[in-house]
Amino acid sequence: xxxxxxxxxxxxxxxxxxxxxxxxxxxxxxxxxxxxxxxxxxxxxxxxxxxxxxxxxxxxxxxxxxxxxxxxxxxxxxxxxxxxxxxxxxxxxxxxxxxxxxxxxxxxxxxxxxxxxxxxxxxxxxxxxxxxxxxxxxxxxxxxxxxxxxxxxxxxxxxxxxxxxxxxxxxxxxxxxxxxxxxxxxxxxxxxxxxxxxxxxxxxxxxxxxxxxxxxxxxxxxxxxxxxxxxxxxxxxxxxxxxxxxxxxxxxxxxxxxxxxxxxxxxxxxxxxxxxxxxxxxxxxxxxxxxxxxxxxxxxxxxxxxxxxxxxxxxxxxxxxxxxxxxxxxxxxxxxxxx
Length: 339
What we know:
Layout: E1 18-21, E2 24-25, E3 36-40, E4 44-45, E5 54-56, H1 58-70, E6 76-79, H2 82-89, E7 95-105, E8 108-115, H3 117-124, E9 130-137, E10 142-152, H4 155-162, E11 165-166, E12 169-170, H5 175-178, H6 189-217, H7 225-234, H8 239-270, H9 279-288, H10 290-299, H11 304-316, H12 327-338
Parallel strand pairs: 5-10, 6-10
Antiparallel strand pairs: 1-9, 2-9, 3-8, 4-5, 6-7, 7-8, 9-10, 11-12
Helix pairs in contact: 6-7, 8-9, 9-10
């Protein structure tokens, strides 16, 4: 094969990698379509319009190809890069062949192509003269992935058309971005890029919040925001119902506390630690601090027994109808008699 005839190349802005293409002359082998086609040249290369420079990271390219092939994906050989333009044109993009294998040859990247019968015939008739690989590269020019390869006769036309593509997204005029991003008409490219970064960060924050909601509601890791929202709404209790249940619970708790106070006061009265007449006073103390009241009762002397005995004696000597005077009245009468 002759040394590569590089055509005009392009690159497009992207977050991690950009996309470009170059073109190389197809050489027939004994009048037949070649089985092996050079895809990328060795060393550093540029397009004829000066774009680049690029250089092939061959291990990365081979690894990416092998990974895709294990998943059943192989780079397509098409006509005039119709695969890259199909979203714009809506036309069909028939395959001319498939890249079945990649090899490094003297720091060049070569591909083994399985041509369709129609494509092989047209190549042999010299209806198609160039192969034009589309590749992804990093900002430093390192080519890491071969996207597809096109049969092409006018690569410059293709390159001008492909320049409107960034991984399938149509390029737009900078001014068209200003209004959606909320920027003034005087904003420059730097302002647009900063606004996009903020927008991207907002999307990241939203994703983080969604993941937190998924965990909080026990939703699946792939649940949509709508699914999570439905889960939250399903567990929502109306305010009126919440207040009804809360009031009923408060009343139940208050009743249980009143019952406990009555039990503690009854026990204290029966033990003679407080008088029945002071029940109301000690009820307020129990309601304020039950623990303090229990400690008081535990250390208090028995004071009610003597009072009960006195009341019994008084009742016995009331008006002389119950067996005589009580001791206090008898003492008073005795002192009066001595006078």
